[in-house]
């Protein structure tokens, strides 16, 4: 008897960022973590979900530069984060804990 081979696919969070609620909850969870790389990566994943080319154009940043800045190894300037957040149609806000 032959064993059936298990087929797997690469998991990508972008496949699960379908609604605005999904996006907001994902970004809030990343911000709760508090690590800058986690937040930047989450914003990058949201940009990929919405279309990196379109987001880069709205933010006034080159697409390749945006991919690099928002990668796990990237270190984007805060001004870049603010431009991308605005291009995504999101707002950052503060509350007390």
How does this structure look, described?
- The chain has 97 residues and is mainly alpha-helical.
- The chain has a domain at 35-90: 434 Repressor (Amino-terminal Domain), CATH 1.10.260.
- The chain is 56% helix and 0% strand.
- The protein has helices at residues 20-33, 36-50, 52-59, 63-69, 78-87.
Question: What is the fold's blueprint, element by element?
Answer:
Layout: H1 20-33, H2 36-50, H3 52-59, H4 63-69, H5 78-87
Helix pairs in contact: 1-2, 2-3, 3-5
* Alpha-beta content class: mainly alpha
Q: What global shape is seen?
A: globular
Number of strands: 0
Q: Which residue ranges are poorly predicted, with pLDDT under 50 across at least 5 consecutive positions?
A: none
- CATH architecture of the domain at 35-90, please? Orthogonal Bundle
What is the beta-strand fraction? under 5%
Mean pLDDT comes to: 92
Rg estimate, integer Å:
16 Å
Question: How is the main sheet built?
Answer: none
- Elements, N to C (H/E): HHHHH
CATH top level label of the domain at 35-90? Mainly Alpha
| Helix-residue proportion | 55-70%
Number of helices: 5
> How far apart, in Å, are the first and last alpha carbons?
60 Å
Q: The CATH topology of the domain at 35-90 is what?
A: 434 Repressor (Amino-terminal Domain)
